[in-house]
Amino acid sequence: MSKYKTAASDRVPIVQKAAFGAGHLVNNLLPGALGIFMFFLLTAFGMDPFLAGILGGLPRLFDAVTDPIMGFISDNTRSRFGRRRPYIFAGAILSGVLFAILWQLDENNSQVFNFWYFLIVSLIYLIGNTIFSTPLIGLGYEMTSDYNERTRLMAFSQIVGQVAWMIVPWFWVLIADPDLFESQAVGVRQLSIIVGAICVVLGILPAIFCKGIDASHMGNRKELSFRSLFSNLKDLFQGIIEVSKNKPFVKLCGATFLVFNGFQMVASFSFFIIVFYMFKGDYGLAGNWPAWFSTISA
């Protein structure tokens, strides 16, 4: 059997692969960093654990609504720069800047003020992040029409994205190090600016270097309006109702939900368990163990 060879015209140049991988590094770095930084809502800013839980969960529900909306907008956009890249460029800048703004909390402010500040900015940040991440994922399917080359592209981007989850645990070590920052609150504020700036620089690379299909003459596209948007959401919910009747699919979704959220729960609690249970709240004794645990498990 002859080995299949991808046509030269269907191959994605290494520069585009690297740029697309950089985008996925950002796409994983931001939520990973957000999870690590959430630890310090309690320890550095004195947030009540119940309120911190609301701040971690409520924006996720909002994100579930904005993703399909952004997908519809991107799919039906007409632009000389394509239907993905303008959003990736703008979204990368918004994501990085808003991430830094999100963590400019003051430990001297009241808990109520910090709660509402974080909640409101979180919702705005998630809009910016959705503008970036949703078109980025869509772009990956449009960079080549060859199945095998697309598989290689996606595999490469997933590997690069997974590296982010090996990096972000060490943000905890940096923030908790008294030799680097005078307090954890200062560490959160300053490191968030650095992380945000890095994400802006890396996040715009796919918009600059990656090439997708020419969608200017693509048919079956809808006019962007509130009416068509609500119609699309209606179709989405009707589709959810239809697929919910497929029991094997529902079981698969349930298993995926439990596995993914189980991993996220363990990853979130691991820092508290290691620091406050195993080492009795002594950051010096805990050392790098929380970071090593999360890096290896990633």
- Top-tier CATH class of the largest domain: Mainly Alpha
Termini separation comes to 38 Å
Architecture per CATH nomenclature, i.e. the level-2 architecture of the largest domain:
Up-down Bundle
**Average pLDDT:** 89
| CATH homologous superfamily title of the largest domain | MFS general substrate transporter like domains
Largest sheet: none
According to CATH, the fold-level topology of the largest domain is Growth Hormone, Chain: A
Instruction: Supply the number of helical segments.
Output: 12
**What percentage of the residues does DSSP assign to strands (E)?**
under 5%
Low-confidence stretches: none
Residue share in helix? over 70%
Order of helices and strands: HHHHHHHHHHHH
Number of strands: 0
**Alpha-beta classification:** mainly alpha
Q: Overall 3D geometry? A: globular
Radius of gyration: 21 Å
For the record, the count of structural domains works out to 2
Task: Please sum up the structure shown.
This protein has 298 residues and is mainly alpha-helical.
Q: How would you describe the overall organization of this protein?
A:
- The chain has two domains: 202 residues, Growth Hormone, Chain: A (Up-down Bundle); 55 residues, no CATH class.
- With 298 residues, it is mainly alpha-helical.
- The longest helix has 32 residues.
- The protein has twelve helices and no strands.
Layout of helices and strands:
Layout (H helix, E strand, L loop, with lengths): L13 H30 L5 H27 L9 H18 L8 H30 L6 H21 L1 H8 L7 H20 L1 H5 L16 H18 L3 H32 L4 H4 L2 H9 L1
Helix pairs in contact: 1-4, 1-5, 1-7, 2-4, 2-9, 3-4, 3-7, 6-7, 6-12, 10-12
